[in-house]
Amino acid sequence: MDEYKYISAISKEIAENLQNIPQLPENISKISHLLDDPTSEMGEIIDLIQQDVTLSADLLKFVNCASFRMKHTPSNIEESVKMVGLRGIRNLIYAIGSLQNLIPVTKGKKLLWSHSQDVAHYALALAYKFYSTNKKIISDAYVCGLLHDIGKILFETAHPETIQKLLDFCHTKHIPPRVYEKIIGGANHAEIGALITTKWNFPEVITAAIEFHHSPSSAPECHRPIVEIVYLANCLSHYQNQRMDFRLLDTNVLSSFGITEEKHFQQLFKEIDTPKTD
Fold first, then answer.
1. Which residue of 8, 58, 131, 257 sits 20 to 30 Å from the alpha carbon of 18, by its own alpha carbon?
2. What spatial distance separates the first Cα and last Cα of the chain, rounded to whole Å?
């Protein structure tokens, strides 16, 4: 069995054990259902969010991050809804619910979370710059960037018994240790992340951004713009940390943003690298 088949076999095993991943918190699910219900009253949605003090604080924090290009930042939930719209609020609610389950806490894991925040920032900046009249893309960009590596975060926060099950599976199937180590190190994390968000009934656009952020040309046409944004945002983050060689970037994606030379890429980075809110 070649390495690709080994990785595919482990991914299927992970998929079969996804029931061990907790569902979204009940309050998040309840609010999400209201947001998806066209008959819901705005006041009812706002009241339900405000009943959860922690959720309200987290939501205000993320709205402030996701609205950094605007002159005014919201001070309450009602203003937040008006500023980013119901689609934006729904996406942020999903993000908060995910992070309550999977948020990393150790120093090493915080580096991964910091990268996710950087990508979210760059994705939103790219959306404003290149899709300024497309409210859907602007509403989706920040959260898609924030959650693009959720598959990696899963492994960073996995319970010991989950890791042991995978080790046992690899031993039974005679899968070489190097392949298992690649999976733990993040190989195929995009597919695994998409499986998680599919289980949680996330909007298709978020799942697509997660699944195809390393292979944008494979994304469904309807989600290609946001996938390309997250791909480029991810590249900008790695380029910032000198972990990305411009020559290895997808030329088709670069051309979508009018980038033909490295100097164009560097100029874009300077334009959108504004301070981020932690």
1. 58
2. 45
